[in-house]
Amino acid sequence: MTDADSLINTLPDPEAARRFLTQLAEKHPSKAKRLDANDALFSDITTLVSYSPLFATTLLQNPEHIAWLGRKRMDSTVRDKQELLESLARFSLTNSQAEPHVILARFRRRELMRIFLRDVRRLSTVAEITEEISNLADAILEHALRLSRQDLDNRFGSPQEVDEKGRMRPADFCIVSLGKLGSKELNYSSDIDLIFIYSSEGKTSGSGAKGSTTNLEYFSKLAQSITKLVGGQGGEGSAYRVDMRLRPNGRVGPLALPLADTVRYYKTQAAAWERQVLIRSRASAGSESVFRSFYSQVETEVFSRESAVDDALENVRLSKQKIDLEKRAVDGIDVKLGAGGIREIEFIAQALQLAHGGRDPWLRAPHTLISLTRLSERGHISHAEHTSLFEAYDFLRRLEHILQMENGLQTHLVPDDKAKLGLIARRMDFADTAAFSKAVAKKMTSANRIFQRVFTARPKTASNETPDLEISADKPKSANPETESNPALAELKRIAPRYAAIAESRPDILAALNDHIVEDRRYSEIFLDALRNKKNFGKRLGVLRETWTKCLIEIVAQDVAGKLSLRECKRLQTELAEASIEAALQITSQELESRFDIKLEDAPVSVLGLGKLGGGGLDYDSDLDLVIVYDDAYWKSNEFQASEFFAKAVEIFTNVLSSVTRDGSLYRVDLRLRPYGSKGLAAISSQAMLEYMNSTAEVWELLAFVMLRHVGGDAAFGKDIEAKLRKAIFHRASHSPTGELAAETRRIRLALEKQRAKARRSNEVDIKYGAGGLLDVYFATRFLQLEHNIPNDSEDRSTPATLKLLKGNPSLTTHHSPLTTLEEGYEFLAALDHNMRLTVGRTSRVPIANQHALEVIAELMSLASSNEILEQLTFHRLAIRGAFETIVGGADR
To answer: How far apart are the C-alpha atoms of 575 and 571, rounded to whole Å?
Structure first.
């Protein structure tokens, strides 16, 4: 037996280590050889993957982390926030091709791997491990704050406030953490509970591109942006699950509040449990002075000198009682919520702090272990009790870490299954399950005995029971009874939770959830009625967003209820987008009239839609790919300069559709497909557009513009320019050198595939950019249209209609079989794409790790299981790529 085999056999899960090494050798042979040559690193890596299948997958997807761990493995110090911030800055530079929220998620995963290795090697205490995990969260929050603030400063200028002497100064902002992050005891898989506080009301400097706005608007956008960056879901998950429900007034409260209002809330309105939450609070990012000012003003409300010991203990006992009542029966031991679990130990510390901290400030320590030590030194618990609680907490937190980092899930359950129990026992360094189970029982029994002693039953009826923070978060004070008796909402929550959250915040939407959509919904008239008599620009934007949201949720609700076909759903969304464009043009015209003394409708303009919008197949979270063209004839005899006028017009128009306000946004507007891309004019004259298409446009632009369609503005002018541009596109294609169109189509398509492959993990399936994905269908279809001069049907430009059109064309009889393959494959991929958007949001990557979502998607697609999704996906992707190769040609064409 080799030394490597001997080492592996000592691990908790030898087979997991061997599987990893085999896969590493297959996928990354050079990395495997270097690992074999480094005994110390080999030991660390095999240990890590034996404890965590999650990290085994991470290392296989990111083999460069192995060398990185080799450099960091001997570092046993706790890295502070500043060190982690610097490391994150370097990581961002080397991963600049990824979206910011993806970078944050990847960085967190990498750093947790380093921390967990030190954890399982017992190179740090539990307090040190949880402190560094908390420092990591602080660094990510600080980085997200800086990114978000820079973006908002560029748009609105920096926020200002007036000091005591009437002078202007910068306004400050603080991200306050609560719960485990607040006490620097964060778990590997904990949520982070946050509130956002800014120093004072005021206005921004107005030096940004969009002028001045209020501090309320600025900091609300800032809070929203930070939450999205840190908690935004992508193909690789989010950095953290961000919980904002503990902020003043819960779900219905503003995302950010000024300091004075926050202090006033905790002094006059907050329930006892809300003040109790502040025991574990601190500044995680931003201005610490804002937090110090806040806490100094509310500390006496948290720790009251008048608080009776019995009352404090009784309130916490009632909270624990509620948890016991609501906790579901589980198969196994819950190390957090079970009798003698982590929560009971935390409650002992917090209850005794509340009981005695008002008169003894030294007891006001947020960290559980520090608090227990001080309580022991003051005689509120005995030395023996302190030792028992300390040892139980240390043991149970280490066990919690082992449980959570197996698969990166927020779990606290020791299972009953013998095989799983045996593996956990070995990971906790126990020789057998009996000894492990005995140790767990001993620690929890000891902790529960002390809990019962501290909270000796005091039968009392409290008029204002103090709910625990987790209970209060699940059942906010403002809960709407209607949400609990609305079957449509319940189904929406199950299938499309993010849309359910929107619906719950709007009583008018909730009331309409069970209504039937009328097939001829006239969205333009709905918007026109809503906007009528709204004179203020901000009010127009607000009512447009409110009305649009209601219309969209109506579509979602009918979709979830199975009352819409996929085609009908996309048709309604396309009509909603077109009506939104018309409404945006109307608002833009009203704004321009006050500045230029001219109406947009007097200067013929056409908004051309490309992509999904051009094809009439818009879906949830789709961008609007637009090109804006204006009529030269009007401007030749007009004293106004078209470039100046339309620069402002396009700015207002895109802001109406895409800017984020407190009421949300409508669409992401993409103007990059216009002539010369980002270097080109925001709007182009009809003559310049025709000249560009006739002489300058590249093949990829011809392929993109096949789908162009007039979607807003002057109808007569729009239809005319649409027809002329289509004629120019097909004329250019017909005069391309033989084979050039096919070769370029293939080159562009494969370049997009390769580009996206760099940004995804090896086991991820991308149904749009990956081989055999939707882009294969789009490129093959548009190539055939250009090659054989077959424009779209003017009545139905969708991909299914175009494929049928191509199949029926006599010149394409030899392509009948591959077109049928594309037709069938597209039907499957389009349905999968639609249901992914509905359940998990906009992503082209199959959510393989989200089993619940896959099961819901399988149900929506009438498939037997999530496995059948993957099986059919593999079949169709292979078939589609084969059809693409047949139509466009292989590499040797």
So the answer is: 6
- Residue 136 forms part of a structural domain: yes
**Per-residue pLDDT for 878 more than 90?**
yes
pLDDT digits (tens, 9 = 90+) for 586-599: 998 888 876 666 67
Between CA 668 and CA 625 the distance in angstroms is 9
User: How far is the C-alpha of 611 from the C-alpha of 608, rounded, in Å?
Assistant: 10
Give yes or no: residues 183 and 316 share one domain: no
pTM of the model: 0.55
**Residues 108, 54: contact at Cβ < 8 Å?**
no
Q: Which two tokens stand for residue 817?
A: 């079989």
Count the Cβ atoms, other than its own, within 10 Å of residue 152.
22
Residues 6 or more apart whose Cβ sits within 8 Å of residue 763: 57, 61, 848
pLDDT at residue 305 is higher than 80: no
Residue 554 identity? E
Residue 568: Cβ within 10 Å count: 15
CATH of the domain at 799: 1.20.120.330
Residue ending a domain, choose from 285, 302, 319:
302
Burial status of residue 705 (CB atoms within 10 A of its CB: 0-12, 13-18, 19 or more): buried
- The 3-state DSSP class for residue 515 equals coil
Round to the nearest angstrom and report the end-to-end CA distance of the chain.
Answer: 54
User: Which residue, among 417, 367, 414, 422, has the nearest Cα to 393 in the 3D structure?
Assistant: 367
pLDDT tens-place string over residues 703-756:
999 999 999 999 999 999 999 999 999 999 988 888 889 999 999 999 888 877
CA distance 669 to 712: 14
Question: Which structural domain, as residue segments, surrounds residue 810?
Answer: 741-888
Reply yes or no on whether the pLDDT at 504 is more than 90. no
Whether residue 759 sits in one domain with residue 711:
no
In a domain, 491, yes or no: no
Inside any domain, residue 501: no
* 161 inside domain: yes
Cite the DSSP H helix spans in 121-237. Answer: 126-156, 179-182, 215-231
**Contact at 8 Å (CB) between 200 and 258?**
yes
Angle at 501 between CA 147 and CA 621, to 5 degrees: 60
For residue 463, the tally of other CB atoms under 10 A from its CB is 4
Residues 563 and 699 grouped into a single domain: yes
Structural domains of the chain, count: 5
Where are the alpha helices (H) located in 28-99, listed in sequence order? Answer: 29-36, 39-51, 53-61, 64-72, 81-94
| Residues 154, 48 within the same domain | no
Residue 491 has pLDDT above 70, yes or no: yes
What whole-number distance in Å separates Cα of residue 143 and Cα of residue 93?
A: 13
CATH number for the domain that contains residue 282? 3.30.460.10
- Nearest one of 83, 173, 76 to 129, comparing CA atoms: 76
Q: Are residues 714 and 674 in the same domain?
A: yes
Strands 332-334 and 669-670, sheet pairing: unpaired
Token pair recorded at residue 458: 């005091």
CB atoms within 10 A of CB 180: 23
Give the C-alpha separation, 290 to 736, whole Å: 65
Mean pLDDT comparison of 294-308, 374-388, 470-484, 874-888, highest-scoring range:
874-888
Q: How many CB atoms lie within 10 A of CB 720?
A: 16
Query: From its phi and psi, is residue 194 left (phi > 0), alpha (psi between -120 and 50) or beta?
Result: beta
Let me know the angle formed at the C-alpha of 244 by 263 and 409, rounded to the nearest 5 degrees.
140
551 and 618 share a domain? yes
Predicted local distance difference test score (pLDDT) of residue 851:
83
Q: Are residues 298 and 314 in the same domain?
A: no
- For 304, counting Cβ atoms within 10 Å of its Cβ (0-12 exposed, 13-18 middle, 19+ buried), the class is middle
Long-range CB pairs of 478-487, under 8 A, 24+ apart, other chains included:
478/249, 478/250, 478/251, 478/252, 480/504, 480/507, 480/510, 482/507, 482/510, 482/511, 483/510, 486/510, 486/513, 486/514, 487/514
Amino acid at 172: D
> In this structure, how many other beta carbons lie within 10 angstroms of the beta carbon of residue 287?
18
- Looking at 676, 708, 735, the residue that finishes a domain is 735
* Same domain assignment for residues 193 and 319: no
pLDDT of residue 470: 33
